[in-house]
Amino acid sequence: MSTTTVRTHPSGDNLERSEQLAWKIAQVAVDDVAVSDEVTEMVINRVIDNAAVAAASLTRSPVVSARSQALAHPVSVGGQGSTVFGPAASRRVSPEWAAWANGVAVRELDYHDTFLAAEYSHPGDNIPPIVAVAQHVGATGHDLVRGIATGYEIQIDLVRSISLHAHKIDHVAHLGPSAAAGIGTLLGLPAETIFQAVGQALHTTTATRQSRKGEISTWKAHAPAFAGKMAIEAVDRAMRGQTSPVPIYEGEDGVIAWLLGGPEASYEVWLPDAGEQKRSILDSYTKEHSAEYQAQALIDLARRLHGSHPELADPANVERIVIHTSHHTHNVIGSGAGDPQKYDPQATRETLDHSVPYIFAVALQDGAWHHVDSYTPARASRPDTVALWHKITTAEDPEWTRHYHSTDPAEKAFGGRVEIELTDGTRIVDEIAVADAHPLGARPFGRADYIAKFRMLAAPVLDESEIERFLALAERLPELTADEVGQLTIQAAPGVLASIEPPHGLF
User: Which stretches make up the MmgE/PrpD C-terminal domain (predicted)?
Assistant: First the structure.
């Protein structure tokens, strides 16, 4: 890996292409280095994981809406079109709309993979747009694996280096460039075309973090899907010879100067050298629970406390609970956010998903976490849950913040220490560093766990034969022919989609 310093330059500098971050991203994308077996295996895991969480969300309102929009845009004349999760594989739509619908389905339950560093990310959001383009152009599984490896690499490299949330910019601003780069690798595009696509994708996908603040709306699931859709459109325009704002990161009116750290800021971005394998997907981690990643370890701790201290489920026994954790956890999903909605029983599912006091209370009482049952209005408004929930606060602990930002994988952690004071004066203190499913956790996720998660989430909406068909295909991903890549989707069981009336709009 080599580092590049990224900072603002006045227009008079005429910054050379070779010195621009977008160009260096393009160079990584065009590097025809082989994908290792280890990375290929993880790409397969994440394709299965994405399909699992998409299956579980097929009948949810945002997904139904996005799918209905996609189905209103039949395949364009430039290729074979792309599949949408739910309908038969023979039903094809224009690739940017397939990326839109499938991206919303993957993101809706906040239940797929994550990478946290200077910024937040769900790098699995790269998969829907890259798969959509692969299906449309007739790419092979080998090409698809290479494209996905690039998408993960670029997004994770940007997330390691450049904080967006510190300047109230939504994290999907790193996704537009990474998806464009991944599509560029998939298609074997020249560096100049990828460079222009990366710039356009970034320019069109910068937005504020209000989508993840206060009352969190259904747009939370749409935001990354929009970035993927914009990446496809940016690649299409760049292939037609259209150019982007240059330099997009470093310009005096560019992203760094006006959306990030300002004209005096600089960032050190690490990217693979020429000939160096793209391995960053191995640094990401998936979710066992459908909740914000920073809550994963705390759910596991709450489950453990439920078993060892069942008295904690009764709020009458609890005086207060303080979760000592990182700056990010405290200020984004904890009481440090200052959002009253995080304590509101009438809050949206999206808001509860970003409330660690709520999540910890439910997991402590139930000894489990469920992607549907733990979020129902009845569950959120249960009087004993509300009483316990309102006794839980978070506090920033510098040591947990240090662990959060550590670059040492053995030390990097997203958990916390819980201090519980009972009404009889008893104190219970326990802590957890990483989630059970984390590579360093009590039960690290492997292929069998990804498959089990898929089976569990798909069983209510897919026929058993469809579950087996998809798994058999996904596990052969690097060997798939173009025709088989076109079958890399999931079809709902008869009557599942028909049970939901799609909404009406303009299309």
Answer: 289-477
